[in-house]
Design a protein that fits this description.
This protein is of the alpha+beta class and 174 residues long. The chain has one domain: Peptide Deformylase. Helix content is 30%, strand content 29%. The strands form two sheets. Strands 1-2-3-6-7 form a five-stranded antiparallel sheet. Strand 2 and strand 3 form a beta hairpin. The longest helix has 25 residues. It is globular. The two termini are 22 Å apart.
Length: 174
């Protein structure tokens, strides 16, 4: 089990702020250590992506599920395809609540790996969606903010129910 707990979105102000670039010349945390922490926490949470600010580390880095997992530092999207796809998304910081969001199906990206090597890749489908979702975290954008008004209203109602259950469980555990 990872030593890092993912704070619930309502209690994580870091999710609402743009994160600073990771400085490989003067790192605030070892990038390889951070990579392991992100991957392990993502796997422990049964997620498919996780941004550093979700675990309280204020840098531009995230991991996304693949074999092997990808860890992206200072990620950028260099091209968005025109076709958009509407799909449900979830988030480890908002457990149990999914919302339909429209995102480009295809993107080209650039990022550094944990050793500072610059990578350029093309992502399609779910990988493109996860990259965009995690990059939104680093830009202070929460996934539900991308939903249309009807889906956003459903999200808010579901999240209200989930937070009541979480609070009730916390009181019961005392």
């Amino acid at each position: 089990m990872s030593e890092v707990i993912i704070p619930i979105g309502d209690n994580n102000d870091m999710l609402r702020n743009k994160m600073p670039d990771f400085d490989f010349n003067n790192p605030s945390i070892d990038p390889v250590e951070l990579s392991h922490k992100l991957i392990n926490t993502m796997k422990d949470g049964k997620g498919i992506g996780l941004a550093a600010n979700q675990i309280g580390v204020p840098v531009r880095a995230f991991t996304m599920y693949s074999e092997p997992p990808i860890v992206a530092f200072n990620p950028k999207i260099t091209f968005f395809g025109e076709e958009e796809v509407l799909m449900e998304e979830g988030c480890l910081s908002y457990p149990g609540v999914f919302v339909k969001i429209k995102r480009p199906r295809f993107i080209r990206v650039r990022f550094a790996d944990p050793y500072g090597n610059v990578c350029t890749k093309k992502f399609d489908g779910m990988a493109a969606r996860v990259f965009q979702h995690e990059l939104d975290h680093l830009n202070g954008v929460e996934y539900f903010q991308r939903a249309n008004p009807i889906h956003l209203d459903r999200f808010k109602r579901k999240w209200k129910k989930v937070t009541r259950l979480i609070k009730k469980a916390a009181r019961t555990a005392k």
